[in-house]
User: Fold this.
Amino acid sequence: MVISLWSGPRSMSTALMYSFAQRSDTRVLDEPLYGHFLVYTGAERPCREATLAERPSKSEDVLAFMAPTPEEETGDRVLFCKHIANHTLGLPWSAFQAHRHVILFRHPAAVMTSYGAHIDRPLMRDLCYVHQMELAQRMESEGNPPVVVCSDRLQADPEPVLRALCDRLDLKWDPAILQWEAGARPEDGPWAPWWYSGVHASTGWEARPPKTPDVPDHLQDLHAACAEAYQHLLERAI
Assistant:
């Protein structure tokens, strides 16, 4: 089985990847499409050079990089691919159509505050809400609806949400996914030094109420533009 996680930025996707890495039946890949996204869009990121040095950027090479093993194809094992939702740009959807899909999102105010520590003026494309809404609509129309997860709910009450996620994916519950060792993992992408300090300091999920910070003035219009897609996702979240 191949599980594709389609996350927005700063939405706890790395923590969820670390969770699934604790399963004895699962292999994880960290944003295998990132190099292609950077070349296709020309997007500037603090980790651009490091990423392009280590990740394939041609579409055929990217898809080969994330190809499942025979056991993963038959469902005897699981391949968990953590993606950012806008990384599909320029790639054929047919490469992902047969996967099981999870969409992970967070309140826009929290995303903008966290993302803004690295990128002062994100674009609508960067925040992924419209991409995620359109992906959800496409999957639903194809009869393969995603499991939609709100990271604020996950943060507030981790175990019930993770149990529900595993159940929806037809995976046996494994309590090992609640904890991991502090520090980097071998699967981390080359961008980890820029983005992963928080998850590297953690040792697992701890229930805590999510915060909704104030949105900076210069991002108010962008925040308002995310509202429709955010609500669409929230209504479908487990």
